[in-house]
Amino acid sequence: MNDTRVALMTDAALIDPALIEALKTLVEPGKVLTDSASLDTYGKDWTKHYAPAPSAIVFPKTVEEVQAIVRWANQHRVALVPSGGRTGLSAAAVAAHGEVVVAFDYMNRILDFNATDRSVVCQPGVITEQLQNFAEENGLYYPVDFASAGSSQIGGNIGTNAGGIKVIRYGMTRNWVVGLKVVTGEGELLELNKDLAKNATGYDLRHLFIGAEGTLGFVVEATMRLERQPTNLTAMVLGTPDFESIMPVLHAFQSKMDLTAFEFFADNALGKILERGDIPAPFETRCAFYALLEFEAITEQRADEALATFEHCVEQGWVIDGVMSQSETQLRNLWRLREDLSETIAPFTPYKNDISVTVSKVPAFLAELEGIVSANYPDFEVLWYGHIGDGNLHLNILKPANLSKDEFFGKCATVNKWVFETVQKYNGSISAEHGVGMTKRDYLTYSRSPAEIAYMRAIKAAFDPNGIMNPGKIFA
């Protein structure tokens, strides 16, 4: 795209009020908002790096309305930004330059269910927890799960290829999408894969839209695959003397059973949870790190195997103390020690890095990062946690009270180069599950080669020739 086109799409002063009036004719009355409160609410996600500044918010209710909005935007060279549950952490859903936000809150229905195929057809605004509950009501299971399941939307999950806490067993969102209907950047409706389990007819365009962050077009319908319900999920929290002990613990349990989750968090992260006072400590002993693992206790023998493995880990010195859930309430409380972390530290305005390597490289990778962080952030509190079973680490640096947000982010950004050089050294990813958005776009070269980025730009140009779909995200 040339600079003139970018200015036309992103400068709010250039969007004629008459265009907003024309936009209002494309949707139901009252479904275009321009008041300041709505612009602030719908123009941002959970990131705090960029101030929201959209021109308008539009709420389509049908596929046809989405197509009409995209065609209007093409005609007038207006930039569009998709908005789902606004729980993202990469600023992919932030409208900071006068864009029009397309919010999918009213496209929130489950359209069809097929018990034989174990599939459900969703509109993009369906809440993740809504799909999980629907699956449970029908004796099935939707396994993609994370802390924001109560507010994130399926369309956003697809746009970022969301992962979460069950990836070690069930994989990412990509694994559960069997069909998509999308509106491209030109306003054309495509039906991708047609819900087939086997389809060897050339390029599977469905997978281009998964993880594309709305830069190629908008997901307007998704067919999601479901799974059998797990049996008697049981969690254990194990305290370890150091991070190096966590990996042999993972290996010991994986050699005996299929885990549905394997998470970790540092002691200072646990301390933030316990300071709230509403969740009990897992046990009296405080340890340097904690592993949270989950498995199906299908039989008493499986539970006995888990306890025997725990005892083996204690004998080896890998584990100091531990607890196993004995009830649904205890299971939920153990999970809250990990899942409530992001919400709990939000008031500290954390600077987040969501990075990954292959599981075998995690210990050496984290050791190098610890050296970088401790050398450059000696006065900052650093919290580590993440989905260690799939190699995903969350590095969280908490803002000191005496620094402004801009000063703090500036100090953190100076070290990003060394952090991402280490990611590149280990052939890792600068964004394991949060997406690229605006927060990571300047660092994309640490995970993608120049040739890959050139092909990605060419793909975007094919689906969105006028560059109206979420411009400035993934790459500038």
Automatic annotation (TrEMBL):
Cofactor(s) named in the record: FAD
Record domain FAD-binding PCMH-type: where: 50-229
Cited InterPro entries: FAD-bd_oxidored_4_C, FAD-bd_PCMH, FAD-bd_PCMH-like_sf, FAD-bd_PCMH_sub1, FAD-bd_PCMH_sub2, FAD-linked_Oxase-like_C, FAD-oxidored/transferase_4, Oxid_FAD_bind_N
UniProt keywords, alphabetically: FAD, Flavoprotein, Metal-binding, Oxidoreductase, Zinc
BP GO terms, sorted: respiratory electron transport chain
Enzyme Commission number, as recorded: 1.1.99.39
Record bears the keyword Zinc: yes
Keyword Disulfide bond: no
Pfam families the record matches: FAD-oxidase_C, FAD_binding_4
Catalysed reaction equations from the record: (R)-2-hydroxyglutarate + A = 2-oxoglutarate + AH2
GO molecular function: (R)-2-hydroxyglutarate dehydrogenase activity; FAD binding; metal ion binding
PANTHER family: D-2-HYDROXYGLUTARATE DEHYDROGENASE, MITOCHONDRIAL
Assembly and oligomerization: Homodimer.
Family: Belongs to the FAD-binding oxidoreductase/transferase type 4 family.
Protein name: D-2-hydroxyglutarate dehydrogenase
Organism: Pseudomonas kuykendallii
Lineage of origin: Bacteria, Pseudomonadati, Pseudomonadota, Gammaproteobacteria, Pseudomonadales
